[in-house]
């Protein structure tokens, strides 16, 4: 009886493979915490897994969650986050892109005659970090779960910012790069429109902050003499 374990970003790189397997004894039990402890023993190259989050399907689970034979457990190291029309933008649109992002096109999509304020945040790849010269950034995403988590964040943002007031209604678009991002290019765009500026500013800040905390997107900084997965400390 086996449990399939999927690895992402720095975990995958340290293991040298995308998947591992754990044996489950007949009649035996194992929770997420126990799976992580066993993996630490069997695969010390992974490093400590205490800060790694478990996922079943496309949802985060607690370490106490029991695992059953045949299930697929994804282990996500700490994270570094389809086009829609008017109705979709009111709910919030999240897009992953392997191509360069355009701030002008993002702004044009969220602008609306009802909105007097449009706020754009662009997170760009910079040439230095912690006194190291950065050559490029590489981004990886767990796409199905990233979309699910962003739907949750959009719903939270509407509930916390709109407060049921039409004058605080939001139109939201978040775009994030995958693959290689050159220095100076945008890695993420957060674009929010609202009738008044306060709601637009607050929503944009909420979305970028929460995206960086909860959405399974990983950033690898590549240097002339090596690389580092940010947020992922073995």
Report on the structure:
This protein has 234 residues and is α+β, with helices and mostly antiparallel strands. The chain folds into two domains: 2-76, Ubiquitin-like (UB roll) (Roll); 86-229, Molybdopterin biosynthesis MoaE subunit (Aldehyde Oxidoreductase, domain 3), CATH 3.90.1170.40. The chain contains six helices and 16 strands. Strands 2-1-7-4-5 form a five-stranded mixed beta sheet. α5 (143-162) runs antiparallel to α6 (197-214). The chain starts with a strand and ends in a 5-residue tail after the last strand.
Write the layout of secondary structure elements.
Layout: E1 2-7, H1 9-15, E2 19-23, E3 30-31, H2 32-42, E4 53-56, E5 59-61, E6 66-67, E7 72-76, H3 86-91, E8 93-97, H4 103-110, E9 117-124, E10 128-129, E11 132-141, H5 143-162, E12 171-177, E13 179-182, E14 186-194, H6 197-214, E15 217-223, E16 226-229
Parallel strand pairs: 1-7, 8-12
Antiparallel strand pairs: 1-2, 3-6, 4-5, 4-7, 9-14, 10-11, 11-13, 11-15, 12-14, 15-16
Helix pairs in contact: 5-6
Hey, roughly how much beta strand do the residues contain?
A: 35-45%
CATH-assigned homologous superfamily of the largest domain: Molybdopterin biosynthesis MoaE subunit
CATH class (first level) name of the largest domain: Alpha Beta
Judged by helices, strands and strand pairing, the structural class is alpha+beta
Number of helices: 6
Ranges with pLDDT <50 over ≥5 residues? none
CATH architecture of the largest domain: Alpha-Beta Complex
What is the overall pLDDT average? 90
Counting DSSP E segments of at least 2 residues, the number of strands comes to 16
Spell the H/E element sequence.
EHEEHEEEEHEHEEEHEEEHEE
Shape: globular
Helix content: 25-40%
